[in-house]
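Hey, resending since the last one bounced:
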Amino acid sequence: MKLTSIQAALLLQMLPGIGDITAKKLVDHCGSAQAVFNEKKINLLKIKGIGTFHLQGFDQLERHLAAVFEEEKFLEKEKITPLLYPSPAYPKALGFCANAPLVLFKKGIVSWENERILSIVGTRNPTSRGVDFCKQLIEDLAEYNPPYCFRFCLGN
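The structure tokens again:
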């Protein structure tokens, strides 16, 4: 199966039985999300901590591809940049966290070199209460002049 690196990463994190820790374990072993899908299942099962439960979704990859393509369209439309583990663009410090996401999304310009970064992670379909809370939090913290404020999918 020929997938781009972002398609492979999105697909990997959509598969049942694959969470952030397992996805990173597979990527670390194979070198990239693309390489995971090019590897034989028998070889993936040799990775410590990987069992048939984790690979059950590999038999139904086609089923998840439509969602991957929709996600790509959304990212492009909203001008959201995916940062893939373990690419150089992925925040180095976050890469050391076992349960860090395989794909991190950013919108706008962010410098990961700052000692402190304020991040707000949200859903694509927030409640009005969630949006109001985030707006108030940003407003309250603005006086402290945080180095960066990262806003993701808080709605209009």
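The radius of gyration is 17 Å.

Sorry for the duplicate.
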